[in-house]
Every structure is written in structure tokens, then in C-alpha cells.
């Protein structure tokens, strides 16, 4: 068991990248591919000549306009972020009295808010981790939900998500994996609602984890509060170029094709794991699967000795040592995982 097991703060800040050593077959990280596609690399390479100048307001405006066009929003409803997770670091500026975070889910918001001294109430959904709005305390004036949710791969219905809205309450929806969902999904990114803030990431679909690209969609007044006191030039020129490129029509079409590929790979991968006696939370809609197997912590350690990384899931509130998360991968990589699990189990 990792040393983080004894430190609650370290558990909240545990992410899949620490599971992966050099040369490992990586099922721990949800990023698709080892790097951005050739067309995006070429686009970023062409922007390298701009690095001698500070990021311009014109480049920021162009990127916000492109994001806005993509979602049918106004540019003043777009806030560009250094990765979707930066949006969570801004939430304390909204000065909530009580935050409800719905789990199992991404833990960065809990850590940020607790570090700021803001009370956080964790709403723990029981298996199969479907949203139950009645579990959210009425007193919560800020509610945070992932959709689709990491690590459960559950996609909550839009109607149920929006039922979390309430008088004097801000609803924050983490749609980091929305681009990976086949079809329109249950996204609310294109709805202009004064009390709803949507956070989006471009890291996963476009393999940009090292560049940190994302954005927030919300009411201009809310976005102004979020960025109060923010450093000047918060995003670099390459980040601005990447955000603009990844929300243009060509990229949107490419992302749609990738979501279809993920769907095919997940559909093929799921029965192979179930045949090993593994319980899989479903129906899964994201580019990862949540597995339940007795002694999953030991299974994970034995897989590590075989050069295979999977994501421990006991760091997510509501899950224990009998859960693992695995990224959806192609058949060749799944062959390696299944063969190893046959030996380990």
C-alpha cells in the first residue's frame, strides 16, 4: 500500500500519473495517446515564433470567441484556464458557506476548498453510483459534480444534474471527459444559466497534459469573481493557440471520431474483463472503467511487478481497497492486461 494511505490530504492529491513508471503499459492515466496528433503538433510548432512576445489580448479574445462559437455561447461567458483543474483553484473566490461534493469523484476540489478553510460536505453515492439529488444538503450553496464522473464512468442524466440547482446555490459541473462521450451526452455546456458553471479540459482527448489547457463556461459576473486577483498573462501563447485549435470545427469532428473509437474499444474491453470475474460499474460512458475485485490493492501491486500500471481507487471518497480504475485502451494493450490478470487472479 502506498505511503499516502496514512495521509488524508495526500490521498486527495493522488493522481494516476504517479502509478506509471518508465516503460510501463499504462492503464492508470486517462489521457489518450502519448502526445497530440500531428496536425495539432504542427499548429503548435508554427506558433513557437510568438514566444518572444507576451501573450496578446487579441490571442485571448480569438480563443474565447472560438470556444464560444463551439458551444453557442457569448465570448464573455468563456474563461480560459491553465487546465480544467485551475477552475477548481478559483472556487474559494466565490466565498461559499458550505460546499457539497458528490462522490466518488475527482478529489482536487475537496483539497482546494478545505485548504481555503471552507466547509466541505461529501455526498457519498452508493453503488452503482447514480445521482440522488435528495442526498445533497439544502444548506449547500455550492455543489460540485463530475459528468461523466471520474472514476465511476457514470454519465448522469442532464435533468437530474440540473435538479441540483437551487435558490442562492451555484452548481459546478466538471465536464473534463465530456468530449469522450459518444453522441451529445448529457452536457450542459451550451446552456447559459446564471447559476451553473461548467469546467472543461482539453488534456484528455488531445494528449495535452503537459501544456495544461481548459476553460470555464458561466455567467460573466461569476467568471469575473473567479479571476479576481489572478496573475497577469495567466496562459501562455501555446496554451491559447491549443485551446483555439481544439475547439475549431475540424478538431470537433476529430474528437467525435475519437469518441466513437473509445466506444468501440470500451465495448470490446468490458466483456473480456467481466469474463475474468471482475465487476464493472456500468453502463460505462467515459474512457475508463471502474472495477471491483477482492484484494484489488494486491492485484495492483502484482500487476506493477509485471510492468502494468492501473489506478488505485481507494483514494476516492466512497471507494475502498477493492476497487481499481483502468483506462480504455486498444485490443493490443488489453491483450497484455487480460493475460496478466489471468496470471494474477
Structure commentary:
The chain has 345 residues and is α/β, with parallel strands linked by helices. 34% of the residues lie in helices and 15% in strands. It has 12 helices and 13 strands. The strands form 3 sheets. It has a 7-stranded mixed beta sheet with strand order 2-8-7-6-5-3-4, with helices on both faces. A hairpin with a 7-residue loop joins strand 9 and strand 10. Helix 3 packs parallel to helix 9. The longest helix has 26 residues. The N terminus is likely disordered.
Give a brief outline of the structure:
This protein has 345 residues and is of the alpha/beta class. 34% of the residues lie in helices and 15% in strands. The strands form 3 sheets. It has a 7-stranded mixed beta sheet with strand order 2-8-7-6-5-3-4, with helices on both faces. Strands 9-10-13-12 form a 4-stranded antiparallel beta sheet. Strands 1-11 form a two-stranded parallel sheet.
If you compute it from the alpha carbons, what radius of gyration comes out, rounded to the nearest whole angstrom? 20 Å
Coarse shape: globular
**Relative strand content:** 15-25%
Give helix and strand order, one letter per element, not per position.
Answer: HEHHEHEHEEHEEHEHHHEEHEEEH
The count of strands amounts to: 13
Helix percent band: 25-40%
- The helix count comes to 12
Read across the widest sheet, the strand sequence of neighbours is: 2-8-7-6-5-3-4
Assign the structural class, choosing from mainly alpha, mainly beta, alpha/beta, alpha+beta, or little secondary structure: alpha/beta
Low-confidence stretches: 1-5
Average pLDDT for all residues: 94
Biggest beta sheet summary = 7 strands, mixed
- N- to C-terminal separation? 18 Å
